[in-house]
Amino acid sequence: LDNTYQPQLRKSKAEIHMHRVMSVFKGAEIKSVQQLRAHMMRYSRDEHLQHYAFIGLEIALDRDKKSKEFFDTILPNMIDRATRILEFFPDAQVTPIMPDSDGRVIVSRAKAACLVANMFLCALPNNEMSFSSLLYSQQSYQVAKLQFYINYFERISKFDVNGPPGFITVVKNVLPYERFDWAASNEPLGHFRVTQRINIEDNHEAMQVDFAHMEIGGGLLFRGCREEEIRFCLSPELSVAMLVCSRMKANEAVVVTGAERFSTYDGIGFTLKFVGNYNDPSRRLADGSLRSCVVCIDATRFDKLQENLMRLQMSRQVLQRECDKAVTGFWNTPETSDYTKIATGKWGSGIMHGNAEVKVLVQWMAASECGRGVEYHVPYDVKDRKFVERLREFTQSLLNEDLCVGQLWDACLDLGDYDVKPGTVFESVMQLLAGWREAGMSSEEDDDDDERVEKRRQQAVRRKSLKGATTSVVAAHRARKDSLAGPTALLAVAEIAGGQTLGTVRIAGGSSTAATHAPVGTVLNPKAGISAASFSQMRSERNLLPPGSTPSKSFAAGLR
Q1: How far apart are CA 175 and CA 208, in angstroms?
Q2: What pLDDT sits at residue 418?
Q3: What is the dihedral of CA 50, 25, 166, 204, to 10 degrees?
Q4: Which of 341, 301, 342 minimizes the C-alpha distance to 321?
Q5: What does DSSP assign to residue 290?
Q6: Residue 40: how many CB atoms within 10 A of its CB?
Q7: DSSP code, position 72
Q8: How many CB atoms lie within 10 A of CB 20?
Q9: First to last CA, the chain
Q10: What confidence score (pLDDT) does residue 439 get?
Q11: Contact, 229 vs 212, CB < 8 A?
């Protein structure tokens, strides 16, 4: 006999827990929801399992008429997959991607099915990512979530426990800079197309944007039922990202490739309904993986009262954060290098209360910086008809002008200094660019890249100096606004001709005047739009400038 002492490695709590799960289901024959709950209570201490019956699961099975099939075929396959977790993951845990660092996790689709099955059976250690709140909920949209996942398990039950073939890749991108220098970007604006015929998830040739929460998956396992939760229900294999990714920061984004879509749906929010099966037409790679890509990026959340505060929505801080977030998700990686389009929509609006027009500019600049076009999906709705028409006219106009990302970025920052009315962002950008073009601040010469970048930097400095000079006029205008009597149409003009100051500035609508100084041609009209043609007549009628002075059309058109 060999009496040599051989120390045994101590098992972790996670391993002990999973051995308990395996012993509970070993040889078990479960034929009802009550029996399933009784078995799950033996290894799980989730309070929902202890106090609530699985009414939600009963309703889901009754809706689909799959009760017998579920207990005869689907559930046994789920248990077989779930109990293989120690075979796939010896320590019963998936190695997560560390916070503040980029990385990738690649798992086979069989391993992904194992993890999702453990989530459904509430079998993961420490009740992590448990489906318990869905199993007992009687809410219609919560029951629909269960139907999506049951349909997924029914589809994969046709494969053996080593299938389906292929791999799921979860990549976390981290922007390597503290701030991206958008003003220096010389990338041309990319292709932009608006469509109302298909949804984002139906565009299989593009990177599909997931309107994500900073916590991947959002409220999937709770009461959430918006775009992100629905996207995860359609492709349950995306749930793997919830296990390996921590809360996203402002310079982080998550990209998931290889996930298959299994279901179709109708409605959103409380009206969500499971419609039926879906056969994903995405192209298959040599290893069996699907050529699919989902980009998870979270937008800044505003209060409802901040939705129309355009100074906040278009502030430098917000624009920098949103553009950095989008470009982090759209960046070229080995998994996404062959994609040329971004499929997106009203990201950051809706319940996030972001301005849809500003978010269009953000996503367009980020996609163009990465050399990709934009496929903008807007579901057909009568109330969105005018928005779609304006968006198409705006994008086509900017594409015809052959602008670059840096120029559009400067225009957004300049507009952020003025009270742009909600719903007029597109028109304001075009007017401002037209004013710069007339003033000779936009060059169309074919210079070398270095010369063009340097020229754009000089133009940005010049525009900044002009804006700084007009700040005093804006301050005087706003200080006097409350004390003025009469109409609310306001105008402030100040010019310096030949190096000499020309008196005072009169504010229309009252008898008060305010003395100030500003460069030639500065026209401020934050509220009412004034055309270049009518501006000269209005100015002469109010005797704001002496005879012989010439109006500056560029600023009248650019800042109105």
Answers
A1: 20
A2: 81
A3: -30
A4: 301
A5: B
A6: 22
A7: I
A8: 13
A9: 96
A10: 78
A11: no
Q: Is 266 helix (H, G, I), strand (E, B) or coil?
A: strand
CA–CA distance, 246 with 215 (Å, rounded to integer):
7
DSSP secondary structure string for all residues of 325-338? HHHHHHS--TTTTT
Residue pair 355/349 in contact (Cβ under 8 Å)? The answer is yes
Cα 229 to Cα 210: distance, rounded to the nearest angstrom: 9
pTM: 0.78
Assigned token pair, 260: 């298959």
Q: Which two tokens stand for residue 480?
A: 């006097």
CA of residue 95 relative to chain centroid, distance? 26
How far is Cα 416 from Cα 435, in angstroms, rounded to an integer? Answer: 16
The neighbouring-strand residues paired with 3 are none
Residue 454's pLDDT is 67
Alpha carbon distance 540, 543 (integer Å): 5
Res 550: pLDDT: 40
Query: Strand 513-514 and strand 373-377: pairing?
Result: unpaired
| Structure-block tokens of residue 40 | 């799950």
Closest CA to 307 of 357, 356, 353: 353
In angstroms, the CA 466 to CA 518 distance is: 9
Which residues does the chain have with pLDDT short of 50? 1-8, 442-447, 463-464, 466-560
- The count of C-alpha atoms lying within 13 angstroms of the C-alpha of 312, restricted to the half-sphere facing its C-beta, is 13
Amino acid at site 491: L
The C-alpha atoms of residue 44 and residue 113 are separated, in whole angstroms, by 20
The whole-angstrom separation of Cα 129 and Cα 242 is 8
Q: Give which of 368, 489, 356 is closest to 424, Cα–Cα.
A: 356
The encoded tokens of residue 458 equal 């000089």
CA atoms of 298 and 213, how far apart (whole Å): 5
Beta pairing, strands 513-514 & 505-506: antiparallel
Longest dimension (CA), the chain: 117
Contacts of 299 (CB under 8 A, 6+ apart): 211, 322, 325, 347, 348, 352, 354, 359
Contact status, residue 129 vs residue 244, Cβ threshold 8 Å: no
